[in-house]
From TrEMBL:
Protein name per the record: dGTPase
Gene3D superfamilies the record matches: eoxyguanosinetriphosphate triphosphohydrolase domain-like (1.10.3550.10), Hypothetical protein af1432 (1.10.3210.10), putative deoxyguanosinetriphosphate triphosphohydrolase like domain (1.10.3410.10)
GO biological process per UniProt: dGTP catabolic process
Any one GO molecular-function label of the UniProt entry: dGTPase activity
SMART domains: HDc
Keywords annotated in UniProt: Hydrolase
Organism: Pontibacter indicus
Length: 456
């Protein structure tokens, strides 16, 4: 296996659904992968992450992270991971810097862009929102709309996945918006790096130990597009011939690691500063991660425990970045061969402490009573919105349903010629998924008559 040739094919500047000549730019000013990053930043879907749940749904504290701040922090960690790996890869295979013109910064920009968008398809109310959408399409109320769907289409809806919704956000253009397909027209490499689960919803691989097989990464509407990307980049095939099922792009492991590092450490920091986790217990755990590093804390005096937590968090993230890149480079050949498929942080020496932090976060933060109450309410909100919008789109003869349809932005109702029932449902699901927590709650209250809009 020629590893240099593999990397040369995997790092492609070809753009999705565009012509290179039309969108070419001077890379001495701004590289192609940096352009990916910038396009994501300026997208409306990314902006909406500022009001989507990360730890606490609809927080009153301005300190608590949202999906937006989490994504920004993950992209910073991802850029460092990518650049360190890129530097070593180019030292191992110096021919990559020749005609291919692959730079160290390219690796960082690819991983940063993928990290920036890794939650861009998440519905309101976090992972609870995914469960709420799945539950609705499993309910009796939804069955009349699902009669003509295939098993794979049903699996997309009844096992709804924010990662697949994110791939759709990045690659789909609504017919009402533009005749140029391709969504944000990102590079093939950034899209593949974004896709941590490069498979369709079926088959479900119960009990798999391979991390890339635990979820799925695209809906049936985008299946052919991902297949094109995978073949262009030379991703290794998995499954049967007719299945769109591949091994990960190697840099997707760094995206997963950046997300893992941020939510393990920074969500925990949120819990500590909100008083959900006893700060002495939390600080003791954070210090354990640094046990094998030079102890500079003893020479410092902190007059506020919150400042000490910030200091520890910064040092820990730096340590985890260095150790994670070492794990990646150690297993580079196995990753390229498709024989390595587990989270990189699972091999870190401090994993037992990270697991303790994860367990404590689940018990004291994610299962905190206000969080559970809002997530439970979110089930009712998203289920109610989906049901109302599905009826409005499918039964336009009713005056009540027409009024609800008028509340849905028209581009979600305008379908391509010859669209199937499945595509109609996906469009409605796109709308509900796109809403922020506050917008979803506000719309639900209005259509249920719980709250009336102010008249001016």
């Amino acid at each position: 296996m020629n590893l240099s040739t593999s990397w040369e094919r995997l790092i492609s500047k070809k753009r999705f659904e565009t012509t290179d000549s039309k969108y070419s730019s001077d890379e001495s000013v701004r590289g192609e992968f940096q352009r990916d990053y910038d396009r994501i930043v300026f997208s409306s879907a990314f902006r909406r992450l500022q009001n989507k749940t990360q730890v606490m749904p609809m927080p009153e504290s301005d300190f608590v992270h949202t999906r937006l701040t989490h994504s920004l922090e993950a992209s910073v960690v991802g850029r460092s991971l990518g650049r360190i790996v890129g530097k070593s890869i180019l030292e191992r295979y110096p021919d990559l810097t020749g005609d291919k013109n692959i730079q160290e910064a390219d690796f960082g920009d690819i991983v940063a862009a993928a990290c920036l968008s890794h939650d861009i398809g998440n519905p309101p109310f976090g992972h609870s929102g995914e469960d709420a959408i799945s539950a609705y399409f499993l309910s009796e109320e939804a069955q009349p709309f699902l009669k003509n769907l295939t098993q794979a289409q049903l699996a997309d809806l009844q096992r709804f996945e924010g990662n697949a919704a994110g791939f759709r956000v990045l690659t789909y253009t609504y017919p009402a918006h533009c005749n140029l397909p391709g969504g944000l027209s990102l590079t093939y490499t950034t899209l593949a790096t974004f896709t941590k689960y490069p498979k369709e919803s079926l088959p479900v691989i119960a009990g798999t130990k391979n991390t890339s097989e635990k979820k799925y990464g695209f809906f049936q509407t985008e299946k052919a597009w991902f297949n094109t990307i995978a073949q262009e980049l030379g991703l290794l095939k998995k499954g049967d011939y007719d299945q769109v099922f591949y091994h990960r792009h190697p840099l997707a492991f760094l995206v997963e690691a950046a997300d893992d590092i941020c939510y393990r450490i920074i969500d925990f920091e949120d819990g500590l500063k909100l008083g959900l986790v006893p700060h002495q217990q939390g600080i003791a755990l954070l210090r354990q991660i640094l046990n094998d590093a030079p102890d500079r804390v003893s020479s410092l005096t902190f007059y506020d425990w919150r400042e000490e937590i910030g200091y520890l968090r910064a040092r820990i993230i730096g340590k985890l970045i260095q150790e994670t890149t070492q794990v990646f480079l150690q297993h580079e050949e196995a990753i390229l061969a498709g024989t390595y498929d587990k989270p990189l942080i699972n091999e870190l020496g401090c994993k037992p402490v990270l697991d303790q932090i994860k367990d404590l976060s689940i018990d004291l933060i994610y299962r905190n009573r206000p969080v559970l109450e809002i997530e439970a309410a979110g089930f009712e909100v998203l289920g109610g919105l989906l049901d109302a919008c599905m009826k409005a789109a499918s039964r336009p003869d009713s005056r009540h349903h027409r009024k609800i349809a008028d509340l849905i932005p028209p581009h979600y109702l305008q379908l391509p010629e010859g669209a199937s029932d499945y595509e109609r449902i996906i469009h409605i699901t796109d709308f509900v998924t796109s809403l922020t927590d506050q917008a979803a709650l506000g719309l639900y209250r209005k259509i249920k008559g719980i709250e009336l809009p102010r008249m001016y």
